[in-house]
Amino acid sequence: MNAPAGPPQAARRHFLQGLGLGASTCWLPAWAQPAATEATAPPLPVAQFFQRPAFSGAELSPNGQRVALRVGAVGQRDRLAVLDTTTMQLQLVAAYKDADVRRFRWVNDQRLVYDLADFQVAAADTAFAPGLFAVNADGSSLRSLVHREYVAHRYDDHRRELPWNTFLLNQTGPQNSDHVFVVQPDAVTDKGFDYYRLLKLNTVSGLAEELDAPKQAFQWLLDANGELRAVFTAREQRAAIHWRNPADGRWRQIREFERYGTDAEFTMHAVAPDGRLYVTARPGTDTQGVYLFTPATDQLEQPAVLALPQFDIDPEFIERNQRVLGLRHTLDARVTQWFDDTLRQQQAEIDRRLPATANLLTPPRRGDSPNLLVRAFADVQPDLYLLYNSSTRKLVRLGTEQPHIVPARMARADFVRYPARDGLEIPAYLTLPPGAKAGSPPPLVVMVHGGPWVRGAEWEWQPEVQFLASRGYAVLQPEFRGSTGFGLKHFTAGWRQWGRAMQDDLADGARWAAAAGHADPQRVAVLGASYGGYAALMGLVRQADVFRCAVAWAGVSDLLLLFDARWSDMSNAFKRHGMPKLIGDREADAALLAEHSPLQQAARIRAPLLLGHGRVDRRVPIEHGRRLRDAVQKHNPGLEWVEYEKEGHGWALPETQADWWGRVETFLARHLAPAKAPPKA
What we know:
Blueprint: E1 55-60, E2 66-71, E3 79-84, E4 90-94, E5 100-106, E6 111-117, E7 132-136, E8 143-146, E9 167-168, E10 179-185, E11 188-189, E12 192-193, E13 196-202, E14 208-210, E15 217-222, E16 228-235, E17 238-244, E18 251-258, E19 266-271, E20 277-281, E21 289-294, E22 299-300, E23 316-320, E24 323-330, E25 334-338, H1 341-353, E26 358-362, E27 371-378, E28 381-389, E29 395-400, E30 413-419, E31 425-431, E32 444-448, H2 463-470, E33 474-478, H3 488-492, H4 501-515, E34 524-529, H5 531-542, E35 549-553, H6 559-564, H7 572-582, H8 590-595, E36 609-614, H9 623-632, E37 639-644, H10 654-671
Parallel strand pairs: 32-33, 32-34, 34-35, 35-36, 36-37
Antiparallel strand pairs: 1-2, 2-3, 3-4, 5-6, 6-7, 7-8, 9-10, 10-13, 11-12, 13-14, 15-16, 16-17, 17-18, 19-20, 20-21, 21-22, 23-24, 24-25, 26-27, 27-28, 28-29, 30-31, 31-33
């Protein structure tokens, strides 16, 4: 298969003044009605940026005749509902007084499966497992499939519930039977679950059977018929890919490589209809592309299905009637590369009718239904879902995640690139506050993503960014070296560079923004969580001439403690084999790690600092925050400390978000205020 020439169309860069639906009808339930707000109204209260979504996660049934969706409201639980696309009637099929519907998926055209969460409690008060439940689209035949409480519960014919630590596989399967696929831990350590086994579960009877597969597995690939074809296994620092020969059913290891590093030649993603594998690989290239791989001959086929010079491809395949019609991936925003002419034309029509948003189309999995689900979004527009009928060309609005957000009052974001001091090009997102004027640069917040070995941001509505922009700040989000998604050179340039070149990228971004007239160089803050919290702290250690103040939460304060803390949920295998390569060796590099640890350099933290931590954080235990607080407060009167008793690694509750960002607003207003003019002589 060859991809059509040219890259997919990138997201638009327009303010969303309104949703132009032309002559299409618009069905909008009461819970999705937008709030009326005058353009001259004051900025939204902080809590309104961090509300639970009113509508989220719409999913088209396999035959395209129904849409399942999660609905909620302020102070209410998230519920599961089904919309009949013919009658446009909405049926509530799952609602709980003590829980929220979390993930959901179509099992077949008539039946759904879902699990639960409790979005009204923080980490310390989480009292039950997600469970797993199945229900028909009309709300009938509800069945509990997985035990909901954290107890050892035996599977038996009376209850037919699997143990609580059984989880839905992140693959749909063929969606043409009553079965789904679930995983259970094959080993448990003090860090959590370690290795899994795969089961096929009947959502009507509750009966399950384990599938034959290699042990120590973390990933499985099913073909279009629901047959298991490939498995990814790992043990300590080694990983392997195994393939099941469809002719004789035997498993064969086809690749083995180092788990942490660049030796992994490819990652498997999907099984093509002809049995080949879709994989991502770098065959002598810097960026990762999508290729077809033939397991029987161990051949990676050229040319690539899709490869681009500046972005790694992270594919999501779109199939219909066992044909791959396109793949979805991320450039500056999430986009779709269509291989099907009809869908390419339908994409063009939707883009003409919704010119202010990036628009992701999803066709039914099978059959000939004309319905397409559309997810529309922009930097100023939270996710908006619509239903498009390709026969009648009607575009029906279903709902938006945050109906009270008025796009015209939000701030625009642009994808930019700036040079680091060593010449490496750093991708970034720059958001300027509404009303920013040339010649009057606003204060700047450099927002550092966590990870750090992840893609930090996408072009979409981001509540933290929009909140800061609404308060008059420009926001720069660097994809500093070590971030993924921008090629191998960019990723490996960040190895063993915590507090060093990774840190320089942030200061270089602030200087670039100031030189370009986007920011006041005398009013710059650095802000982040997790690794971003570490970088914010190191900004005050190494770059106090650039950053006037810092905000850090759930942040790493000591690289030595990162290795030594036994109460962290960081796996022992990653500490032994991954961290020495990516951060540094605990013994050989101890002096270097101490030099680039904020706790060890606490005497140099003199600028104002807002520091926060959750008491039950297992990823970066609160000891990181408390030790740094104790070391800094002795000499720094500008230190502010907040500890959330029941929160974990980040803030789960909207009320915690509102409290924290309210503190951030007060802190930044105090320390990034314009400098007073010197008195006249």
